[in-house]
Inverse folding.
C-alpha cells in the first residue's frame, strides 16, 4: 500500500493497481504518467534522471511506472543536446557541490539555468564556455564555402568536394584568427 496525500485528503492506494493502470506518453524530454483520477496530482512528469517533478521526486510511483514501461520495450524520450539541461542538475557538473535552479540563466536553446552552491553562477558559465569551445573546434568555418552540389546551391560545411562548382570559397576561422 502507498499513502498519497494532498492538503485536503489522505488516502491509501494499492500501488500495484496504480502502476498497472498508469498510462505513459512522451512530451518533449519527459515521460508524462497519468496515475488515474483517484490520485492527485494525476499527471506526473518524469525525466531521464529518474526523478518526478512532484514533491516526491525519485520516490514517486510514476518513476516505477516509467521503469516498467521501459522494461517492456516502451518508447523512450529523445536525447537532449549535450549542452541542454532539461532540469537544473542536482549536483554541479564542475565540482560536485549541490546545484540549484537559476531562472535568469534559463533559455530555450540551453534549457534550465543553474547555479553552484559553492561558486554561484561561475560554474554554470564555465560549463557553457566548455561547450562553446567544443562547438568552435568542431566547426572550422567562419563562413562555409557556397557550392553547387548535385544541382543545388548549398553551404558546404563539410568542405569543397572535387565535383563541386565553387561559388564562394568560404573563410576558415584560422584565416582570421578567430
Amino acid at each position: 500500500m502507498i499513502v498519497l496525500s494532498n492538503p485536503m485528503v489522505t488516502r491509501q492506494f494499492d500501488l500495484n493497481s496504480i502502476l498497472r493502470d498508469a498510462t505513459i506518453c512522451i512530451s518533449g524530454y519527459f515521460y508524462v504518467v497519468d496515475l488515474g483520477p483517484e490520485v492527485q496530482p494525476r499527471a506526473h512528469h518524469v525525466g531521464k534522471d529518474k526523478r518526478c517533478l512532484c514533491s516526491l521526486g525519485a520516490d514517486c510511483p510514476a518513476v516505477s511506472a516509467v521503469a516498467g514501461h521501459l522494461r517492456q520495450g516502451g518508447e523512450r524520450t529523445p536525447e537532449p543536446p549535450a549542452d541542454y539541461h532539461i532540469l537544473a542538475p542536482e549536483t554541479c557538473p564542475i565540482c560536485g557541490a549541490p546545484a540549484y535552479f537559476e531562472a535568469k540563466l534559463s533559455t530555450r536553446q540551453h534549457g534550465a539555468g543553474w547555479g553552484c552552491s559553492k561558486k554561484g553562477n561561475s560554474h554554470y558559465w564555465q560549463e557553457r564556455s566548455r561547450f562553446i569551445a567544443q562547438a568552435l573546434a568542431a566547426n572550422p568555418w567562419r563562413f562555409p564555402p557556397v557550392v553547387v552540389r548535385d544541382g543545388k546551391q548549398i553551404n558546404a560545411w563539410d568542405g569543397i568536394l572535387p565535383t563541386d562548382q565553387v561559388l564562394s570559397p568560404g573563410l576558415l576561422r584560422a584565416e582570421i584568427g578567430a
Q: What stands out?
A: The longest strand covers residues 23-27. Residues 81-138 form one domain.
